[in-house]
Amino acid sequence: MLERTIRSVLDQSFQDFELIVFDDASTDDTADRLRELADEYADPRFRFVIHDQNLGFVSGLSAAIESSTGEYIAIQGSGDTSLPSRLELQVAVLDQRPRVGVVGGWYYNVQEDLGTQRLRQPDADSLTYEGLLESNMFSHGEVMIRRSTYDLVGGYRTEFKFAQDIDLWLRMSKVASFATVREPIYARHVQFDGVSYVPKKIIEQTCYSIAARRLSQMSDPDAAEALARIRISGPTAVVPADDPIVQQKVVKAVLRLAVFGSPAAAQTLADTSVTDRRTRVALTAFGRAYGSPLFRPFVPMVRRALGMGKRATV
C-alpha cells in the first residue's frame, strides 16, 4: 500500500512539487520500507520523516506542512492513490480562482475485500458554511489547500484527534470559498481495519465531528473554553455519547458494520454504545435477518442505502 501511494504521487502529470511522508513511530516495517523506496526512486522531490516517538496524526501532519515550502498543500491518505492528473487539475483551479481556499474532486471509494468501487461526485463550488454543518463534502485525502488560507485560520488543531478536517473546513469556509474538480482524481481505499470501522473508536470519532460543528457556532470565548475542555477530557466533555445525533450516527455505523464488515463487531458496537434498548433489539434482529437466505434479494437495496453501489472489478 505504501508503494502504490507514493508512486501515484511521483507519477503525476504536474511535476513541480515536494512529497513529504512521515512515519509516526510505527511499530511495523514502514520506516525501513520508506528508506528502501527512497533509495530505489532516488527522486529529490521525495523526502520522509521518521518520528522517534508517536506524535499523533494531526501533530505529524501539521509538522510536515510546516516543513514544506509550497504555495499549495495537497493531502494524500496512506494507502490511497492519486490519479495521474490530480495535482495538475487542482493547481489550475487555485491559480485561476484566487478566492478558493480548498479544492477537492470526484473520487472512488474502493473496497478491495468486497471487490467494489463507487464513484463519489461531490460539488463544493456552491458549498457554504451552513452546508458544511450538515455534511462534510470531502474525504480529506483528495483535497488541495491554499497555504495562505490555511495559515490565516490557524491550521489543524491538535485537540482534534479525529474530525480534524471538518474542523479546519468550517473555519476556512468563513474566509474563503471551496471548489471541485469535476472528474475523478483520487481513489480512496476503504479498509475495515481503519478508524472508521473500529467499533471502540466510532463513538469518539463521532463526538469529535459534532464538537467541531458546535464549536464553530460558538462565540470566540465560549469556543476557547470548549476547546480547552476537549484538550483535557476529550470530545465527550462537549458532546456526550448519549447525544441524539451521536446515537443516530452510531446506529448507521452498526448497520454498515453488519452489512460490509463484521457482524460480531456490529453487535459489540450496538451492545456497548446504543443507549435505547428497543433500538438495540431491532439492530440485533436486523443482523440475524441479514444473514438469512430469505434476505438475499434485499441485499443490493440495503447496500445502496448505506452508501455502496454496484459491484465492479477492482
Explain the overall architecture.
The protein has 314 residues and is of the alpha/beta class. The chain folds into two domains: 2-189, Spore Coat Polysaccharide Biosynthesis Protein SpsA, Chain A; 199-305, no CATH class. The protein is 46% helix and 15% strand. The protein has helices at residues 2-10, 30-41, 57-67, 86-96, 129-134, 147-153, 164-172, 199-216, 220-233, 244-260, 263-273, 277-290, 299-305; strands spanning 19-23, 46-50, 72-74, 81-82, 100-111, 116-120, 144-146, 177-189. Strands 3, 4, 5, 6, 7 and 8 form a six-stranded mixed beta sheet that branches. A two-stranded parallel ribbon has the order 1-2. A hairpin with a 4-residue loop joins strand 5 (100-111) and strand 6. The two termini are 15 Å apart. The model is unreliable at 308-314 (pLDDT under 50).
The outline comes out as globular
**What percentage of amino acids are in beta strands?**
15-25%
Count of individual domains: 2
In round numbers, the mean pLDDT is: 89
- Oligomeric grouping of the chains: single chain
Q: Quick one: how many beta strands? A: 8
Helical coverage, percent range: 40-55%
Report the radius of gyration as a whole number of Å: 20 Å
CATH class placement of the largest domain? Alpha Beta
Q: Please, what is the CATH homologous superfamily of the largest domain?
A: Spore Coat Polysaccharide Biosynthesis Protein SpsA, Chain A
Structural class of the helix and strand makeup?
alpha/beta
CATH architecture of the largest domain: Alpha-Beta Complex
Order of helices and strands: HEHEHEEHEEHEHHEHHHHHH
Distance between the termini: 15 Å
Task: Report on the biggest sheet.
Answer: 6 strands, mixed
